[in-house]
Amino acid sequence: MRRKTLIFGLCLLEVTCALSAKDKKSIPLYKDAKAPIEKRVDDLLSRMTLKEKILQLNQYTMGRNNNVNNIGEEVKKVPAEIGSLIYYDTNPTLRNNVQKKAMEESRLGIPIIFGYDAIHGFRTIYPISLGQACSWNPELVEKACAVTAQEARMSGVDWTFSPMIDVARDPRWGRVAEGYGEDPYANGVFAAASVRGYQGDDMSAEDRIAACLKHYIGYGASEAGRDYVYTEISAQTLWDTYLPPYEMGVKAGAATLMSSFNDISGIPGSANRYTMTEILKERWGHDGFIVSDWGAIEQLKNQGLAASKKEAAVYAFNAGLEMDMMSHAYDRHMKELVEEGKITMAQIDESVRRVLRVKFRLGLFERPYTPTTTEKERFFRPQSMDIAAQLAAESMVLLKNENGLLPLVNKKKIAVIGPMAKNGWDLLGSWCGHGKDTDVAMLYNGLVTEFAGKAELRYALGCNTQGNNRKGFEEALEAARWSDVVVLCLGEMMTWSGENASRSSIALPQIQEELAKELKKAGKPVVLILVNGRPLELNRLEPISDAILEIWQPGVNGAVPMAGILSGRINPSGKLAMTFPYSTGQIPIYYNRRKSGRGHQGFYKDITSDPLYPFGHGLSYTEFKYGTVTPSVTTVKRDGSLSVEVSVSNTGKRDGLETVHWFISDPYCSITRPVKELKHFEKQLIKAGETKVFRFDVDLERDFGFVDGNGKRFLETGEYYILVKDQKVKIELVD
Predict the structure, then answer these.
(1) Which architecture does CATH list for 32-361?
(2) Using CA atoms, how far apart are residues 363 and 341, in angstroms rounded to an integer?
(3) Marked catalytic residue, from 293, 331, 666, 703
(4) What is the rounded CA–CA span in Å between residue 316 and residue 327?
(5) Can you identify the CATH homologous superfamily of domain 396-586?
(6) Active site residue 42
(7) What is the pLDDT of residue 452?
(8) Which helix (H) or strand (E) holds 513?
(9) For the chain, which residues score pLDDT lower than 50?
(10) Distance from C-alpha of 63 to C-alpha of 79, rounded to nearest angstrom
(11) Taking each helix axis from N to C terminus, what angle separates 382-395 and 138-154, rounded to the nearest 10 degrees?
(12) Please, what is the average pLDDT of the chain?
């Protein structure tokens, strides 16, 4: 009996194993989560038809339709095999419906990747990126991007078209609001921080999304600040200025990039094989994919490169652009182009491989659907709002503080005047995701809360952001005369910066300047609060303002820290990441210009040639005293090591955050170098009476070296200078 039982058990085991093996064989390798990603990609590619491959290289849109009764109809219009969708909804219901179609109605069940422009927040909106750069706190920016990732992923979005790291030196260009200022290194540091925040250590985690570096490349060199137009960029400038942030973002692991609209000295960014294939893929080893900007492939016709959409597809694809965003050039013409031999199957396979690789890394094959949650679970978490407040506070720059007017102490009557005082929308800034004006704490309300029981406040509109209506001037002047101090809130509407928002003059509208002049008649001190998405021309406002606080477009939680700075509860620490010109006519003006052959000449005859507020400018309520900049050695060999230190003491009575900027100057070089270049920065809290040491570990190859017009790196012997504030230390590099 025992023998019969044993035999039966062995037979059962054999059958079970056979069935298990059969089941295992029946599961395609690409669906095996334990298999290496590259093996899964190979397997899936081998099963795909040409049509299926082509559709993976296209991106459509969905989610603009708010009628729930039409959701089914919207899903019906989307091909089950589509590669990507731009998703405009704020909850995952529609996403899951269309993803179900992809998983169950397509032959292979390849999940869709859902993208969205979450630039400086998804629903919890943070300060604009230019403001964030002025915090000089990449760790804090990383945290903000992590919140954006969490909110987006829980809402059905897997991929953000961010960060924008276009080095921009013309504030007439509206998109300066979206980037991190005029310096290549700063853009690179914040690019890497953003990528870490969005993607984390594991992009497949439930609270992470794929990042996208944009716009690749040179978009920020837009001629005369006009959007979308031609850019003239020398090979040297391309490598010196515009490529470094992207290289740093790629090294940080950015999953994707977005091609740019602009020409690059005659070859459009979306058809530029040199930048997209030779540099990005062959030299830097990027293994993700490139998506076009909206309609950029079709726009190759407008740029005079392609005679038809079909020809545009050839140019873009052969240059290395994998995914077509809303041109319908690839889906309509690629099959025909393969048949004509203008595009090869090997090229298609490589492009699809790159798209699939990102999808596998996002874990979409294992978790194609997004769990349904409430808005309370997704948005405005207490820690998210705390980050928003801290980032806003550190982004704000105290530009002027005549006679120590700020903080406002013993001011019993405060007049709050101006079009930005009770304004929600314009505090959000451009590209504000799914932010709503009802989410925003208004400046006036922040001041009311901050000064409750300390001072009486009186509000007057004064004027609108633009126009010629001066009817509110009288009421505003009356409030100013009643007050001990005037808090004047001026600035730009959100639509005045961002995409397609170029301005010929960066001054505020005349009506706002006239209001300021009128209020000055009251004889009371004026604190100017600026809400804007770009540096402004302030040469007429600066003389009549006793203090100026630049708060940028601070997002949903900027009012409280702004009021905290005015009261003195918060010590301002922001420093400019972009120069404020004295006049629009000085543009372009930036700190790291190349030297002039006649440095004693070449100045304007009618105005100063200096900026109003230079790069790195920013005041504090305390005083910082810098010690002597001390290098570890003053002569160093190529294979040697060099570090530099400086002690900074807080000699004031208040704790404060201080940022030390480390610059390098190469006075004599076979390729002329800028007057100075930022190579490192660090921000530390220094308590009153305390001294902190700041350290710069110099990478000789990176920090002293330079590239030529083809990206070849050189390190020449000779003298270099390390600059901190008004100090410079000479270093000799020898063989």
Answers:
(1) Alpha-Beta Barrel (3.20)
(2) 35
(3) 293
(4) 11
(5) Glycoside hydrolase family 3 C-terminal domain (3.40.50.1700)
(6) no
(7) 97
(8) helix 510-520
(9) 1-23
(10) 15
(11) 140
(12) 95
> φ and ψ at 434, to 5 degrees?
-105, 20
Q: What does the H/E/C string look like for 269-331? A: HHHCHHHHHHHHHHHCCCCCEEECCCCCCHHHCCCCCCCCHHHHHHHHHHHCCCEEECCCCHH
- CA distances to 379, 424, 534, 554 from 439, rounded to whole Å, are 11, 8, 23, 12
CATH of domain 624-734: 2.60.40.10
* Tokens coding 447: 């001041």
Tokens of 709: 């017009």
- What is the C-alpha to C-alpha distance for residues 537 and 59, in angstroms, rounded to an integer? 40
Residue type, 696: F
Q: Spell out a b/e string for 554-587, using b for 16 or more CB atoms within 10 Å of the CB, else e.
A: bbbbbbbbbbbbbbeebbbbbbbbbbbbbbbebb
Every domain of the chain and the residues it spans: 32-361, 396-586, 624-734
Type of residue found at 459:
Y
Whether the bond into 407 is cis, omega within 30 of 0 = yes
Q: Are 577 and 180 in contact (CB under 8 A)?
A: yes
Q: Which residues contact 285 (CB under 8 A, 6 or more apart)?
A: none
398, 399, 402, 408: CA torsion to nearest 10: -20
What is the pTM (predicted TM-score) of this model?
0.95
